[in-house]
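SAMPLE LOG
Freezer: B-3
Tube label: C17
Construct: single chain, 432 aa
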Amino acid sequence: MGDLFDIGKAGISAYKNSLAATGQNIANVGTEGYARRDASIEEISVANADILSISNTSGLGVRMGGITRAFDQFLDLQLQNSSSSFAFAKSKAEILDRLETVLIPQNATVGTRISEFFDGLSNLAQDPSDLNLRTLALTGAEGVSRAFVNLSGGLNDLRSLTQDTLNLAVGEFNGTLKDLSIVQNQILGNANKKGAPNILLDQRDTLLSKLSEFADISVEYHHNGGVTVSLGQLGAVGTLLEGNFSNEIEFDLSAQGTKAHLIGVNGNRSSVHFTSGQLAGLISADSLVGTTASDVNALAQKFCSELNTIHKSGLDLNGDRGGDLFSLKNVEIIQASGNTGQSSLSVIGYSEDFAGSEIKMTFNADRSAWAVMSSNGKPVDDFNSYLDLDGLTVNVQGTPKDGDQFYLKINENNSLNMKVLISDGNKFAAAG
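STRUCTURE (predicted):
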């Protein structure tokens, strides 16, 4: 039989440690990711005593059986799924709220400006010779043009914001995955027969919860405290973390859409998709904003084409046939920052053959000529001071120096470039 003093000492020590665990729970009540600790008290019997005993009918007091975390694997998996669904809805809703503001501004929509323009045309049709009505009609046309430009610019800015947010989220996702891999290595290196240290398991679960906010993940828990993390429900998309190895996600963002790839430790790339989480919400929102921008461009092209056709069939105050009223074409001139010469460019017209391409012009002093390269691969001959690109004429003024460069960005028909080509009311072909 154990000595009464030893039994009492063991009991006091055990319950002191139990109270310490309770105090730890109270102290960390506001600590993010902390899981409640439960201390178990067990009897020291003859079978598990550390000292010799001559009796099997009496115990030797109590001792701490261990400190366990309050952890439910099923509830944790449910929480991860719920976090993914909530993050998907939240991230998409934030972009859609901004999209609604862009499409329906406080002052007036594109539809409002088009209605005002048609009202002005109806009034002008009653008296085509009235210069005031002609001016008002042109003002209405300018209003339509500005509305399309503002709408297109707002959509482009919103898409840039969405893709920038997506890039930041991908960086955080990969960073969280890397941190989880580090914690996993520590867990596997410190695991013993009673399991991994509780503080490491808390860190593991916190990182898994954060990871689930970015994407839909599936987690397989192992007895040694390690986990296998995969992308998608039931891990059907790809493995993110297994053992000591982790992969990462990479996105290719373009005007045509967003593509995601899983990059393995050996550099292999495989296409992946997201169905839930912040990343999926941003991808869905980016696609919707891109579709909306395409619809706006299509509307602007249809509007300009129809109005130009009608305007060309009319007569202005001078009795001449009308020309194009609206244009969606634009050529942007960019001068290289390292230019040392005194040359400048002027462009007139537009080239359908080079639409959507970039023209690079480099001056060669030995040949006193400009070498031209087109991003669409179409050959362009060198020139001295004048270049004709199938309707787009380029004139060089001033004296260039060797190595000077200019870039011409020939934008495709886009509502962002919409402008009214007529400024004189007399040129408005309002008569039949």
